[in-house]
Fold this sequence. Notes:
By secondary structure, the chain is mainly α. Helix content is about 45%, strand content about 5%. It has a two-stranded antiparallel ribbon with strand order 1-2.
Amino acid sequence: MLTRLSRFGPTVPRLLSCPPTRFVSQSKPTGAAGSTAVTELHPAAEQAGHGEVSPYVKNPDYHGFSSDPVVDEWNMRVGFFFGISVALVIGGTFIHYLPDHGMRQWARREAERLIKQREEEGLPLINENYYDTNNIVLTPAGEE
């Protein structure tokens, strides 16, 4: 294992030092110089003192809300409070108080009420005839 780690020995310091990233433009040159344009995405530390500094350099805990670290953290906390806490509480309350879909709760309460009523009257819970036979109108056998 030591031989494996020693192979990467000279590479690690080069990876940790952050040289500027360069991108070469592939478009046709428009200026008088006629050379390809080279732009730097992250300027080196010694060059960054005079221009705009990336928010990641000023604030390693940058959340993307503001370039000021204090305002950035405050906005992140407020955003997460309203986005997570309030959304879960209000969303959960909204879902809890939605109307009874399909009247399932009402059907259960009505069934329990009918069971208690039938038990008090001494009737069977379910009749052998689901419908009242006196109310069923049958046609004579020969007619259709």
